[in-house]
Amino acid sequence: xxxxxxxxxxxxxxxxxxxxxxxxxxxxxxxxxxxxxxxxxxxxxxxxxxxxxxxxxxxxxxxxxxxxxxxxxxxxxxxxxxxxxxxxxxxxxxxxxxxxxxxxxxxxxxxxxxxxxxxxxxxxxxxxxxxxxxxxxxxxxxxxxxxxxxxxxxxxxxxxxxxxxxxxxxxxxxxxxxxxxxxxxxxxxxxxxxxxxxxxxxxxxxxxxxxxxxxxxxxxxxxxxxxxx
Length: 229
What we know:
Layout: H1 2-42, E1 44-48, H2 61-64, E2 69-73, E3 79-80, E4 87-88, E5 99-103, E6 115-123, E7 127-132, H3 143-146, E8 149-153, E9 156-157, H4 162-165, H5 173-176, E10 180-181, E11 186-190, H6 200-203, E12 206-207, E13 211-220, E14 226-227
Antiparallel strand pairs: 1-2, 2-13, 3-4, 5-6, 5-13, 6-11, 7-8, 7-10, 8-9, 11-12, 13-14
């Protein structure tokens, strides 16, 4: 009898550590998943660039066989309150020159449920125009033939930041062919590759609540690692 009890005790002692190790691994995996979801929801998120609308700043998979993979800081414009588009504890507001990721929900002319990336060219309360550099600008000609222009804000040529003021844009679309007033808490977004970008010139303004975060760095591929400027 004592031998049988001893064998049972040894079996129990052997099985308990195995169950304990399995439980510890399960908890670790669950904690890691929860932490990753928390970080993704409020702090950081990664994105892959699919198109060439932001070239040369960000390379798209369409033209290079791969897209730059970027890190987006979400909390810099404030923590989004769950199930709302309101934010709290913002470190800064989106400003001209920022490269931002935003949701397309509620923006007419865009596929719903997607994330886009563009550069902030104008902010709410401003009047923005793309002023042609060519005095003989002819809207009947193609963009390349008629030439591009530069941004003017509230009737004055934009001088900074260089990431916007130094780029050539093309008057086009319903909102980009003449001076347009940007509503409060909205943003006018442009692609750096203005000839190949469907942006606010065509579909209008991005509400503040749609902004996901600021693109800060390229982390892949290795030869492209660097800050997004």
